[in-house]
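Title: Prediction job returns without error message
Component: structure pipeline
Severity: low
Priority: P3
Assignee: unassigned

Description:
Job completed but the reporter wants confirmation the result is attached to the right record. Sequence as submitted:
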Amino acid sequence: MLLVSEPILGVDEASALAEVIESNWITMGDRVRRFEQAFAAAHGASDAVAVNSCTAGLHLALHALGIGPGDEVLVPSMSFVATASAVLYTGARPVFVDVVSPDVPLLSCADAAAKCTPRTKAVIVMHYAGYLIDGAAWRDLARTHGLFLIEDSAHAVGRDRTALFSDVAVFSFYGNKNMTTAEGGMILAADAAVLERTRQARSHGLTTDTVQRLRGRPATYDVTMLGYNYRMDELCAAIGLVQLEKLDIWNKRREDLTACYRAIMPAVCPEVTIPFSSGWRSAHHILPALLPPGADRNAVMAALRSDGIQTSYHYPPIHTLSLYRSMYPDLRLEQTENFGSRELTLPLHPKMGTVDVDRVVAALGRALSDAAGSVS
């Protein structure tokens, strides 16, 4: 089966894990700190805070910025549910914003501005599929309305993305991401004080960590804020240090494979489009394709699976999920729902070659042709 995404794990990662086991220190320690520093340097930042998931990072970002009950946070519906869930964790209310269009499924500045109220305190923007939003436009909107700007950068990691342009950016290292630590995430922040609040809150609000106490600096701790258990361990950090070194090469491979998809899709599947223009800056996390209106996506996915090709879709719009539908029964987001009903995620990962792209597109063409024939 050709998978939608697949991590690259090998001897280097195994060796790094063995070193952690041999050290007999597996909780948050020196490797986590080295990973934070290396990740920050790779993204043009002075420091970073490692956590056990991007979800935890988003929660900590909102917590550190003082978001809480009575506040509203603008969020995308075309994202993984965690983007909105993190807002609920704080007691604040997520306000769903439409995307620009099916061809540009990124948060709409115009719709965000229209949905601002006196209670709106922040906006979370998301680099869907790795394609970067217009940082300058969102800075202007945040400045105009007095909002904190948070980047959900789960899809955009590496030098391919711009430097930090928000108050806080949060990254994901889940197993299907451009680089992985199995589970894990990272926080960057423009304000060092905000970053330090996330650092303290990730470990129960303790004023010192275990390594500091081991080394006697100092030997005990205090708790000065409400905190959480969002720490990253040494095993995840060890994998992260290895993966980070290979990220540029892997992202370049993703870029080349995406260009291959764009080159051959029009001839084989002229009714299928790939969102965003070919020159759009991106980390190329996934390969989203837009099926023609009315196409039976489930039938197409089943046909591809029978050809040994896994597909998926990213994502069911959050506001259509049962929990959120019960909270927002009358909400409609026309562009998001249009995109969400037609998007099909095709395989994209560095283990693939151009021959795999040819195979996927050819199978997609057959699946669409067979589906059209069955209808007629």
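Comment from assignee: result matches the submitted record. The radius of gyration is 21 Å.
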